[in-house]
Amino acid sequence: MLTMDNPTALPRYQQLADDLGEAMRSGVLRPGDRLPSVRETCRERGLSPATVFHAYGQLEAEGLIEARPRSGYFVCTPRRALRAPPRAAPASSTAQPVAVSALVFDLLGSTSRPGVVPLGSAFPAAHLFPFEALARSGARTMRKLGPAQITGALLSGDDGLRQALRRRYALHGVALADDELVITNGAMEALNLCLQAVTQPGDVVVVESPTFYAALHALERLHLQAVEVRTDPQEGVDLAALEALLAAQPVAACWFMPSFQNPLGALMPAARKQALVELLARHRVPLIEDDVYGELHAGARRPLPAKAFDRDGGVLHCASFSKCLAPGYRVGWAAAGRYTAQVQRLKMMSSLATALPPQMALADYLGQGVYDRHLRQLRAALAAQQRRALRLIERHFPAGTRVTRPSGGYFLWLDLPEAVDGVTLHRRAMALSISTAPGVLFSADARFAHHLRLNVGHPDDPRVDAALRTLGELACEMAAGR
């Protein structure tokens, strides 16, 4: 009998689906085998019929099992071998100015219009977030809000939220100083302030290859130069390549996303994160750590941030609630280490303060003890949708396509055949109201011309399956020279 390894980490239907999926991957259940009946599974696992039907329905949607009338559920025969993961691309070691904003606006400017299937967006589906519960928290806190409270928390941020954040840091193995947190207008303000605190115009900043285009925007705005470092789609930054860069030229800072990197989804193992922090500490180079996806892990435990290995205050850790709890609330923060005073001063000089009501609403919500339950449900939904999307990509995209299989987040990175230009594919898909994010957006020198980033964080949207099939058909036509 299959057993549950961790009965509290995921919803029970998800545990059953994962157990059965693992049994198929390991060969315990083989193509053509009949699954236990719903009644048998209910009896053996102590589950309700609704839970078992939910799990079997998910496996059927992913193409792993099929229902046969009056016979039950059976393991499907694989239709195609799994796609290979993309290879790490070589990166130029030459620092260069950044000018990507016009291209980003051109390619992504219309992707959020109504009716467009949001495979190119940066956010998961709105229905995954507890907006009603957050609204109730906001209404409660607004009744308590007075002038003295507003002015008292103007610069430092809401004390309740700061305490809640420090508790979560401690839970994840990071002890923060009492005054280290700077509350910001989303993670992007935190990242921009941290970058500004440690650089001067003309400085060189190391970024991943590929990297998130918003990091390139920030470098462009501050007149900084980018140098890209080879990044493995599974394990993140190549530390040997980084060490060579640090030895070859002056570097003012590194901006990395060690957990579920956008666009690759790469997760640096803890030992590599520790080695990264120690390498940068030896060179006295600060690390700006973008950790907005850290809570969206598919495993049982949140991966340690690089900040957990910081011993001298050289890691400026930035995150927000935008991707995991409250899109649109624009509440982020920086744990800026030895650069806290500079970041606080820049915050005061730029936006002065972050709106207090959203902070108080989030603090109230966190105080109810329901955040981790929400995260478990969110992670399960995203992981299931990723598996579903991968099955569709395996079936419908051209031969030679490589795709990542991240252990968290909600992005997939596709390396397409050379005949498939990502920008052309994007424009053809947009003509059919399907958005994508072409690979050229994720590099200072517009490399990755045959790559796409796809957002698969939209479960329960019937348009997504059809969009992935259509996108695959368009790619096949281009691969065939049509």
UniProtKB/TrEMBL annotation:
In Gene Ontology terms, what is one molecular function of this protein?
transaminase activity
Highest taxon of the lineage: Bacteria
Name the coiled-coil region(s): none
- Whether Secreted counts among this entry's keywords is no
UniProt keyword list:
Aminotransferase, DNA-binding, Pyridoxal phosphate, Transcription, Transcription regulation, Transferase
Q: Which residues form the HTH gntR-type domain?
A: 10-78
Similarity comment text for this entry: In the C-terminal section; belongs to the class-I pyridoxal-phosphate-dependent aminotransferase family.
Entry protein name: Transcriptional regulator, GntR family with aminotransferase domain
Native organism is Leptothrix cholodnii (strain ATCC 51168 / LMG 8142 / SP-6)
